[in-house]
Amino acid sequence: MKNILIATEKPFAPAASEKIHKILTKAGYKVFTLENYTNKSELISAVQGIDAMIIRSDKVDREVLDAADHLGIIVRAGAGYDNVDCDYAREKGVVVMNTPGQNANAVAELAIGLAIYGLREMFSGKSGRELRGQTLGLHGFGYVARNVFRIARALGMKVIVYTRYSKEAAAAIGLKNTHSLEELYRKSDVVSIHVPAKGVHIGSVSYPILKELNDNALIINTARKEVINEEDLLRIMEEKPGVKYLTDVEPTHKTLFAEKFKGRFYSTPKKMGAQTEEANSNAGKAAAEQIVAFLEHGDISCKVN
Amino acid sequence: MKNILIATEKPFAPAASEKIHKILTKAGYKVFTLENYTNKSELISAVQGIDAMIIRSDKVDREVLDAADHLGIIVRAGAGYDNVDCDYAREKGVVVMNTPGQNANAVAELAIGLAIYGLREMFSGKSGRELRGQTLGLHGFGYVARNVFRIARALGMKVIVYTRYSKEAAAAIGLKNTHSLEELYRKSDVVSIHVPAKGVHIGSVSYPILKELNDNALIINTARKEVINEEDLLRIMEEKPGVKYLTDVEPTHKTLFAEKFKGRFYSTPKKMGAQTEEANSNAGKAAAEQIVAFLEHGDISCKVN
């Protein structure tokens, strides 16, 4: 019989936990849980004899991996997986997965919420603008952007996209891919960023791109701060006094933005895009299903290492 | 030649003003403007010899109407028209119109923005909920509610409605009309209020209705404060510690709500639902078109007196 560990410093909500248990026990596995633990030693002893584990933001380093004498797979219920030493896991033959797309709707709803909040002058009572009729530029076209697209279209926005890796997905729904990132930023009233902090994307929102923005453009960033060259954005916001920046990822220069651009900058107090009951529950359920698919059929679709 | 006066203490935006002038001059009328005036005497002298006038929040009382020796029609560019003495205008044979529906999308976008803001715990960083999958109850089904419906459906919400006067419009799009207001409130995760402060609607959101709410319900009010029995809402928010109230209409007991229900109550600093460039521009354009339709063809579709 396979032994599955659910190790969560911050446990799943009861309803989510129940779903996860149901999926795993139905598959005939024995389920162990380690919740609210405060010391790595607890995790180290819990992983012994375990075949698969589900974690959340829990740190899985070399020491934990060395203690796991039987581990085949770790699934991070969520998108980011920098809490896992993926390289060392690979060395040890342990598959690492995340649960992509499960929080996409949560992040997309926040992006739309921030867009309304921004165009309506942060609910200050000042006259604002409507989303209807405006052009939304999607920088990237992954799971989150696709949800933003669905909602934005109903809001009566014209949607365009710049994507390197999802051209087919965009074309399949008739969405226009601009020729360059410059063109995307030039044609957009609202830009929503949906690329990861990897490779060419790092610092990609830089002066040559930003200078194309129209004078009243609104930038929404629910992705990663590393995508933006903050010095360049600060410079553009000086040069174009109508440009606004609203973000769910705390900028390195948050204080500068807040001081210099009152009413034009907003940052959530804590990254919260994926923080919904639904996203957590979906991710937990997906993690359990991915473990079953891996153990029963060797399915590695969501492998990240 | 007909003389048209645009009397606006708070002028239209330049682009809106240009559109209005174009419509009226194309119809062969002579257009006069009185902007940024500070004294009623200016309005009194401006209305002399005028056939039709467009106003915004400008006060048109008996004195102004008596001075208007030639006036056939007043169009209030906007929804509310309590700034006009409609009865006296009717006595004097002056038609009063508003421009219904022109700000509907603006208000609807704010209602959706407030719903996201509310379910995401006012962007506090705390874990929230998604709109997708929840049931939205529309209390009333006028122009604003119809726009909310369009957006909410794309957000993946289940939408239900309780309407007395728009049953056909709701049925035409397959929208379920509940049997009672109680049923609407009982079945909704989010209720959005879209009825005017008239007749049966005044105080209609009262204890017998509110006690039906589920424990995590969110109420959005972008309509009028008089629709809600505030004492009853205060009582329910004591009894059901998950119920939230977000409003664009300042409650009479605002301080009480704010003090007692931190994190569960939000009121915009100033009614701003209709305050968008687009709504103002649409309303001005509609006002000009309604004047032409009235003067040329006697069209009184939007008459309110």
Word description of this protein:
Two copies of one chain form a homodimer. By secondary structure, the first copy, chain A, is of the alpha/beta class. The first copy, chain A, folds into two domains: 3-102 and 276-297, Rossmann fold (3-Layer(aba) Sandwich); 104-267, NAD(P)-binding Rossmann-like Domain (Rossmann fold), CATH 3.40.50.720. Helix content of chain A is 38%, strand content 17%. The first copy, chain A, is built from twelve helices and twelve strands. The first copy, chain A, has helices spanning 14-26, 40-46, 62-67, 86-91, 104-119, 143-154, 167-172, 181-187, 207-210, 230-239, 254-260, 277-297, and strands at residues 3-8, 30-35, 52-55, 73-76, 95-98, 135-139, 158-162, 176-177, 190-193, 218-221, 244-247, 265-267. In chain A, strands 8-7-6-9-10-11-12 form a seven-stranded parallel β-sheet, sandwiched between helices. In chain A, helix 7 (167-172) links the parallel strand 7 (158-162) and strand 8 (176-177). In chain A, helix 1 packs parallel to helix 12 and helix 5 crosses helix 6 (143-154). Chain A is elongated, with a radius of gyration of 21 Å. The relative contact order of chain A is 0.15.
